Here is the input.
Amino acid sequence: MNRREFLGAAAVASLAAQQGGEWGGPVVDIHLHPRRTAGDSFLHVEGCGATRAVLLTNLRDADKAKGEIALRPDRFIWFAATDPSQPGNFEALQKALDDGARGIGEMKNHTTADAKDMRRVYDMCAERKVPVLIHFQETSKFTGEEGWNTGFSNFDKVLKAHKKTTFIGHANFFWAAISTDLARESEYPAGPVKPGGVTDKWLSEYPNLWGDLSANSGNNALSRDPEFARSFLKRHQNKLMFGSDCSCRDGKGTGSGALLPRLKNKCVGRDTLGLLKELTTPDVFRKITWTNAVNLLKI
Ligand SMILES: [Zn+2]
Ligand SMILES: [Zn+2]
Here is the structure.
């Protein structure tokens, strides 16, 4: 096979993967962290039946993301993240965007979400027209650590002050806050959702807030109260996106370190796709697993 034939065959295979696949169409995983060896991220993408992925990359792992993208430029894009409070890091984020990063995230630092350094990043994202993906967590009983990007209960002030910034919310507190009866230490609350939570409310009120359904937290938000989840997904069908944030090796659960008992030895991404399929119409499933991210990220 010569180079032209090879590229032709690759394009056909890629098109086939995008049109069919086990989820009835292409799927983009907006929350995958780059693996140690180039090719390993793709093993997870394919294994859970996805087509493409966004590699959320701490700048110290930039080479890993770049290696994966070099192997399969049509399957991956990357976001860049680092602690903006450290000298030189703001500039490093700007440089990453110059180098082709398509967003900032995931931001996961021991700071408040409205800290001055964070706001500077939000302004830069508005200017550069890229989204910022944030891990919101107040505490952790699992690791005993202090929170990451704390103060979500007042985040409406940031949403108002940074109207031109697109925020993608993620993690424990963001997803616990679909319910009004949440404690600061909420991580994976079980049982029926008490309607009126700020995440639900702000997704309706602020066009610049989007949701990333990845991880144990996103999965738990969908599985704890299926009736609520059905209406929530319908209500925010244009602003929610599928992500895995899964650490299993192969997209089938091998080596999964999932925390929720119902996800033990399972691929979080694959399970969340199953929940989404169950809880949405085919049209809404397509939006959440593909169209919304493709439009937002201009993939
Ligand atoms: Zn996270
Ligand atoms: Zn997995």
Notes: The beta strands are 28-32, 52-58, 76-81, 104-107, 132-135, 137-139, 146-148, 167-170, 209-212, 240-241. The chain has twelve helices and ten strands.
